[in-house]
Amino acid sequence: MTEVPATMCGVQLTGHGGPERLVWREDIPVPRPGPDEVLVRVLAAGVNMTDLNTRKGWYGGEGRAAGWAGEMAFPRVQGSDQCGRVVALGDGVTGLPLGARVICPTNQHEPTKGNPINFVSIGSEFDGAFAQYCVVKAKHLHDVTASPLTDIEIGAMPCAYGTAHNLLTRAQVAVGERVLVTRASGEVGLAAVQLALLAGAEVTGQCSLSKSAPLRGFGAQVLSRETTPPFQSFDVVIDVVGGEGWQDRLDALRPGGRYATSGAVAGPMVKGDLRRVYLNDLTVYGATHQPREVFAGLVTIINTGRIRPVVSNTYPLRDIARAQADLEAGCYPGKLVLISPETFP
What we know:
The chain has 345 residues and is of the alpha/beta class. The chain has helices spanning 49-56, 151-155, 158-170, 187-198, 213-218, 246-251, 274-279, 292-304, 320-329, and strands spanning 7-13, 22-29, 37-46, 83-89, 101-103, 107-109, 119-121, 133-137, 142-143, 178-181, 202-207, 221-224, 234-239, 253-261, 283-286, 311-316, 335-339. The strands form 4 sheets. Strands 3, 4, 5, 8, 9, 16 and 17 form a 7-stranded mixed β-sheet that branches. A 6-stranded parallel β-sheet has the order 12-11-10-13-14-15. A two-stranded antiparallel ribbon has the order 1-2. The chain is globular, with a radius of gyration of 20 Å.
C-alpha cells in the first residue's frame, strides 16, 4: 500500500439534526482498504440534497430518523459525491492503477438473497467524501482519467447526474419526445435537462425564471414554477418536486405517457386521482436503484466530455454548513462543490 498519513481532516456527522451536528475534525484516522477495496484521495465533493436529508433523518419517514437503509452509525463522514484519485489498493484489486482519477455511484448495488436490488449509499451506510480520504469497493469505482472535465466538474456529477441519467433511462426518453423537468434549475433537474437534450428530446424546464438562464443557454424551453403545465402536452415528466401540483404534472402527460420521480423537495405526501393514471394508461416510475450499466453510461458521457455541469460555487470543505445552507435556500442554479483542504487555493 502506498504510504498515506495516519490522520486526515474532514467533517463528521455526530447525529441526525441541524448543521450543528457537522463537526470539523483534523484527527480522523485515515481508513485502510481491505480486500477488494480502494483508498481514494478526495479531490472534490458535490453538495446534494441527499446529504441534507440524511443529516436530518428524513428518509426514516414520519417520527423515525434514519439514513437510506435504516438506522445509521455515528459518527459518520457524509459525502455522496466525489471525484478522487486512487492512492492505495487492497488485496485482490486489479484494473485500477495507482493515480487513476475515479468516481462512484451514490447508491451502490449490493444484492442479497431477499432483495436483488438492495443498495448501500456512500455517506450513509459507510463513510463518504467529506474528508480527505475514503474507502470504496473497487467494483463500484469507474475510471474517468481520460475525461477533459476538471476535478471540480466531475465531483459535481455522480449523484445529480447519476440520478438524472437513471430517471431518463427508466422513463425510456427517446429522440423527439417532449419532456417536462421540474425544479429544472436545481442539481438533478438541470442535469436531467442537459441529458434529455443530449438524448434528442424536446425539453421544457420548470423553475424560477430568475434562475432560468442556464436552461435557455442549453436550448430548453422554460416554464415558470408558478405556472400549471399545459394539459396533455408531454410524453415524459421528470419530477423531483412532489408536494402540491402533483396531479397537474400527471395531467400534463399525453395518453400513454411516463412519469418518473426520484425526489420530493416540496413534500413527500401527494394527492391525486388514480382514474387519470389508469384511464390514460400512464406509467409511474420510482427511480433510486441504478444498475451498473446505467451509471457506466454516464461515465462514457463524462469521459467523452459531451456535457459540462453548471457549477455555480465552490467552498472549502470546512465551510460545509454554509454550502448546505446555500443549497437548501436555492441560492444558485446547478451544483455547489466542496474542495478538500490540500487542493483548495
